[in-house]
Task: structure prediction
Amino acid sequence: MKIKIIVISVLLLLFTGQAYGYVQISPLKSTLSPKNQVVNSYDEKALISVQLLDEDKQPVSGHKVKLIASSEDVNIRAIAATSDEAGKALFEAGSYKKGVVTYAAYDITADVLLSQRAKVAYFDSISFAKGSPAGKISKLEFDDVDENIKPGDSVTFTLIAKDDNDENVVNYNGKVDFSIKGNDVDPVELPEDYTFTVEDQGEHTFSLALTFTKSGLYEVTATDSEDFEVQGSYVFDVKDGSNAALDNDITLSNPIAGTYSNNVVVVRGKAGAGNRLKVFDNEIAIGSMQADADGNFTFTTAALDEGAHKIYAASVDETGTIISPSKTVDITVDTVVPEITKVELEPAGPVDPNSSVKIKLYASEELAKVQLNLGGNVYDLLKTNQGFYSANIAAPIEFGDYPLNFSVEDALGNKASFENQATLKVGVFNGSGKAVPGDVKNVRVVSGNGKITLQWDPAVPAVNPIENYRIYYGTAPNSLTNAVDTFSNATTWYVSGLNNGIPYYFGVAAVDTRGNISANFQQIASGTPTSSGVAAALPPDIVHGSAGKDALKDLPRDASESGPEIWWLLILSLFGGVFYGKMRSWIKSRL
Result:
């Protein structure tokens, strides 16, 4: 029995020795040193020592250690990568760039990242070295101090280390303490003493670190704890209650009272520096913000409803209770576009080409601008005393139906476009409402050498007599690109100057004394000029005059629009017509 007990005791001893033989690294108690250092040029290197300790702060030896940098622009060399009997590993670290680099240590053996960090400030010139003339500190300077201070405020300021040339001493690492000149120290709560680090680069901001409980002038001095000649002072002016009350005054510079066509409004104004603010619309809070260091604030609303709004801003305390409101600004949001209620034309029916037409437009509200777009031309309509907008225009010279398109704008700049509000009919009926001349029927052609002679039946006039006839012609039935007007209402004419062997197509329309023209070609006739006077056979639709008979509506209504070549054709046709008439008279006299 004793033997068994001894064996078990030995096994337990072996087991516990194995369990506790492995030393646990403490990431919190292990160290990197020095914590902060300065390297004054790219040629120098920082030495960083890593010490591995366990929970009892006993050194841990034989562990491999790796140094990790926060920047890629570094060069790390392990002088001793394995911890010695004192638990220490040693590294050399340089940088290719100026700046602060943070280093961490990783225990590869224990797979543990140490908690402590070492920081190295690298500089590219020896001019920044501690103790060199360009970098030696000579004074401390207060900067970025809020000028608007009232009792109870916590003040933020920046303290900068300066040399004799008023340049920042970026490698300053001294300790500063603060004091008040005079005996009235009770109303002032000074910042805690502070030691500059390499990260500060010679300047440090003390956020809300200085508090005054009473108004007055207070001179605060910052002094280097080792060199009393290195110091700086600033006089803080803490305003009394009456001046402090002015900080609660809130003024709005935008919006101003009036009507707006945009339903998104920018609220802009001035208040006390750092004041908590809320914006109200019709007594409902719609936003909150804080004034900047100069007291300025800006807030953009969401889309507001149509109608009246009362806008104001107010300073509030931490609970949202209003301390001081601004004046209320009354605005109206109107984004509804104007509408056209009626359009009238005088005369109301079809009109003659180029005749005068009066356009009347009625709208749902007063308009600042009304324009009519008719056939590519733009006309301004003016407001009348009768409550409508009007313009007198000349009807187009081309026959057809013309849609009236309008664009309108109200006094707020709301714009709208309306198409096809009415139709202006031109050319089918004259201004008296009578029909246009009848279509020309029974067009005959006689081919000649370089010319075509045409004859037709007289057109039936409407109210106005037939003035003359207009002959359209071309080399395709649907492309009668040339036109000539006869000199009278005679029903015979010829067109000369044509090319032999080429078919020509002709359409004839009547023109009355009012300029009204036939609505359609009754037929399209064709002939081919030849030296023999005998034309080639034509297709059936040409023989029967059905090809191109609907082309009149697409042709120019004025013969002068057919191009400059019409003039010489007209002259040749004139001489041809005179010669033809005399020859007919001479032949008849011989029969």
The mean pLDDT is 81. Residues 444-586 form a domain with the Immunoglobulin-like fold (CATH 2.60.40.10). The chain has five domains: 31-124, 134-243, 247-333, 340-426, 444-586.
